[in-house]
């Protein structure tokens, strides 16, 4: 492990960047798809506002955080201030409103951990999930999008990491592996550690909101940070190599928590994340930037931590030695 941690990069690593870039470009949604998403947002907002004039519908998740692949489902959040209705009542009424509006395949999932309505729009062909009053997700969506505007390598790196995670089946939270959201946070943390990204939450705030008693404040004038990491010239393939080497051989799983809120590693000890509490095992610790008591790695258990670390090691070895990493890295599990 010590030897692997200190291994220098292969001399020909940069030749793989164009190949990874073409994979990235093949996954980016087209302008046509993005305008269809906006069109659906407008249609649904009109329909819902007729019934609830003060409500507001937000796009969140991958279709709004800039880390979405083409053809992914759309996540929407309805913000509504109605003291007389429970979340479940709102979901049921929302399903009725959507029925009346000719949307299809409507399902109200009232018993899910996060209750949602699922639907399909026959005009655009898009499917979406609507949740209620989950504003923290709307705010963390904006944080991720703001980070992606500072250095274009973040979006490229995160696309390849997500594509790898989906191909290798380590992006399935119901099975005990990590969410796409967690992978993007891991990429942001990694680029902060290489001084390619700043830490927006440690800078003078220009954006503040309070959501469910969490204060969310950070510097969001990211156009002023253009060129922040420009002196660091690492290519996409070199960053991928270093990212997987970090998670395979350098990260200290028994001691460390990654935190994009502070732009640093913090200790598990400080957060009291050293032992299992309830179902939270804290075997890989990824602090949520706003809900700081929330470990995005909490879904990982004894078995899936070794699957995950095995996959990090596999990826690191491929980027180190494989003659054709652009193919081998994504071979189906
Ligand atoms: P995919 O392309 O895989 O659908 P996604 O960005 O939509 O990616 P998800 O992990 O499905 O990723 O998350 C959707 C959104 O929900 C995230 O962008 C984030 O705003 C929010 N979210 C997801 N998981 C968490 C979590 N554990 N804690 C807080 N917010 C979360
Ligand atoms: Mg999603």
Lay out the secondary structure.
Elements lengths: L1 H4 L11 H11 L3 H21 L4 E5 L1 H4 L8 E6 L7 H14 L3 E6 L6 E5 L6 E6 L2 H14 L3 H16 L12 H14 L13 E5 L2 E5 L17 H15 L5 E4 L4 E4 H4 L13 E2 L15 H20 L3 H4 L5
Parallel strand pairs: 2-5, 8-10
Antiparallel strand pairs: 1-2, 3-4, 4-5, 6-7, 8-9
Helix pairs in contact: 7-8, 9-11
Quaternary organisation: single chain
Structural class of the secondary elements?
alpha+beta
What separation lies between the terminal Cα atoms? 24 Å
Overall mean pLDDT stands at 96
What's the number of helices?
12
CATH top level label of the largest domain:
Mainly Alpha
CATH topology of the largest domain: Poly(a)-polymerase, middle domain
Please state the CA-atom Rg, rounded to the nearest Å.
Answer: 21 Å
Bound molecules: adenosine-5'-triphosphate, magnesium ion
Describe this protein's structure:
The chain has two domains: 2-27 and 149-328, Poly(a)-polymerase, middle domain (Orthogonal Bundle); 31-136, Beta Polymerase, domain 2, CATH 3.30.460. By secondary structure, it is α+β, with helices and mostly antiparallel strands. The strands form three sheets. It has a five-stranded mixed beta sheet, with helices on both faces. A three-stranded mixed beta sheet has the order 9-8-10. Strands 6-7 form a two-stranded antiparallel ribbon. It is globular and about 65 Å long. The two termini are 24 Å apart. The protein has twelve helices and ten strands. Adenosine-5'-triphosphate binds next to helix 4, helix 6 and helix 8.
């Amino acid at each position: 492990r010590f030897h692997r941690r200190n291994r220098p990069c292969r001399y020909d690593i940069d030749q793989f960047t164009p190949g990874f870039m073409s994979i990235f470009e093949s996954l980016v949604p087209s302008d046509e798809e993005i305008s269809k998403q906006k069109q659906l947002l407008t249609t649904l907002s009109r329909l819902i506002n007729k019934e609830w004039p003060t409500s507001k519908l937000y796009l969140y998740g991958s279709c709004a955080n800039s880390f979405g692949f083409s053809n992914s489902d759309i996540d929407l959040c309805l913000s509504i201030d109605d003291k007389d209705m429970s979340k479940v009542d709102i979901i049921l009424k929302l399903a009725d409103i959507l029925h009346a509006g000719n949307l299809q395949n409507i399902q109200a999932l009232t018993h899910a951990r996060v209750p949602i309505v699922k639907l399909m729009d026959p005009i655009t062909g898009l499917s979406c999930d609507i949740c209620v009053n989950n504003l923290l997700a709307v705010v963390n969506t904006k944080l991720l999008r703001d980070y992606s505007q500072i250095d274009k390598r973040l979006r490229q790196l995160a696309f390849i990491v997500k594509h790898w995670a989906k191909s290798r089946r380590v992006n399935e939270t119901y099975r005990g592996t990590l969410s796409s959201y967690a992978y993007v946070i891991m990429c942001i943390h990694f680029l902060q550690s290489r001084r390619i990204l700043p830490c927006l939450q440690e800078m003078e705030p220009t954006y503040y909101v309070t959501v469910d008693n969490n204060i969310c404040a950070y510097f969001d004038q990211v156009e002023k940070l253009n060129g922040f990491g420009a002196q660091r010239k690492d290519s996409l393939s070199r960053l991928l190599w270093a990212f997987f080497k970090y998670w395979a051989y350098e990260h200290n799983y028994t001691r460390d928590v990654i935190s994009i809120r502070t732009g640093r590693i913090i200790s598990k000890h400080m957060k009291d994340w050293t032992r299992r509490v309830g179902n939270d095992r804290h075997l890989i610790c990824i602090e949520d930037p706003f809900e700081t008591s929330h470990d995005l790695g909490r879904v990982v258990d004894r078995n899936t931590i070794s699957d995950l670390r095995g996959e990090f090691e596999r990826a690191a070895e491929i980027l180190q030695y494989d003659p054709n990493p652009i193919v081998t890295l994504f071979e189906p599990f």
